[in-house]
Sequence to fold (322 residues):
Amino acid sequence: MKFIKFLIVGILFGVVMAKSQALSWYRIQEMFRFQSFHMYGIIGTAVVLGVIGTALIKYFKLKDVQGNEIKFAPKEKSFWRYILGGSIFGLGWALSGACPGPMVVNIGYGFVSFIVVVFFALVGTYLYGLLQNKLPH
Amino acid sequence: MLEFLMKPWPWWFSGIIIASVMFLLIFFGKSFGFSSNLRTICTLAGAGKRVKFFDFDWKTQSWNLVFLVGAVIGGYLANNYLNDGSEFQLAASTAKDMAALGLGQPKDIQPLELFSWDALFTLKGFAFISIGGLLVGFGSRYAGGCTSGHAISGISNLQIPSFVAVIGFFIGGLLMTHFIFPLIF
Fold:
């Protein structure tokens, strides 16, 4: 039963990815061609609210449902892994039109071929694990 | 209200809901990062026996797998029960660019030439799907996160690494869209 809340938030996430059409390859093309404000508006709104909410949580030292103070883990300091990994991710994002969340939402939406996209994303993840020590981080 | 929800959602409403998803997870004591699931699934498939990166207690991420299952259900519900059948509207300039690439008039949220089940058995369809998936999987783990972990959660926490990762997302995306697409279409 403790997992039901994550199922419900997951459903909300799937619904918003579908209803915002963020799972559409075309919308990602509009974004990378700077021809529509839609994706920038979605991410921009989420980020502005995110920055304000995160600052408020820290300022008021808010607690989570278990009563623990909410902590935000800082990202590991580095440059190369973010710029190189990010660029590789971006190449794939434009090609498949989907980042990992929208990939699986597409399957539920009815584009069953995204099962194959997810399969190859798992292969890519495995390859990273395999090559991790040889890559600049 | 229901009529509003049945139509495609405007950007501002979508953005509010995405931020709400992130904050709900934070208040449940977790964090918003979808691509971690890919690592967890590799671990479940036994990758931890061969590669140290996958040797971790996957149970710490089981909540995120439940979230993933919810996301699939959400996609199904949205298309089947929260859909008024509105025609897909693409920016006119993008529609023109798509036609120049040789894609037909958009009939659905995805170009059927690339993502229908039949397209999977064409060279172009399979290449988009396989290479696209591979790069997203590799890149998100290399960068330590995807759109949810870096662009939304990381930037909300003003993390410089996440800004760098998002710059990377755009370097890759712009390169693919403007330099590689004209070569491969």
